[in-house]
Amino acid sequence: MLQGLTGWHFLIILAVILLLFGAAKLPALAKSMGQSARVFKGEMKAMKDEDTSKTDADSAPTAASVEAPSTEIRTDAGGSAESKP
């Protein structure tokens, strides 16, 4: 794609960009592009971490799925298994 471009071509492209945006706006443009790239990279990392945690949660059995819930009936308080109001 860029095989035919020489140093003069890049110099002309740089001059056109400088004329379009102006010298004062170029640092702000570069800062904005850097912030956008940083946000994009952070979102991609968050998605990757979410995918790995989701696959880890799916593959590891939990303790609740292994053990049955216990039901405890207290008879030592002088009552029966039924609750008294």
Describe the structure using short key phrases.
single chain; mainly alpha
Report on the structure:
The chain is mostly helical. It has a domain at 31-58. It has helices at 7-21, 25-59, 63-66.
How are the SSEs placed, and which strands pair?
Elements: H1 7-21, H2 25-59, H3 63-66
Shape: elongated
**Beta-strand percentage range:** under 5%
**What is the number of strand segments?**
0
Radius of gyration: 33 Å
Low-confidence stretches: none
Distance between the termini: 83 Å
Order of helices and strands: HHH
Structural class label: mainly alpha
Mean pLDDT: 77
The total of helices stands at 3
Describe the structure concisely for a colleague.
With 85 residues, the chain is mainly α. The protein has helices at residues 7-21, 25-59, 63-66.
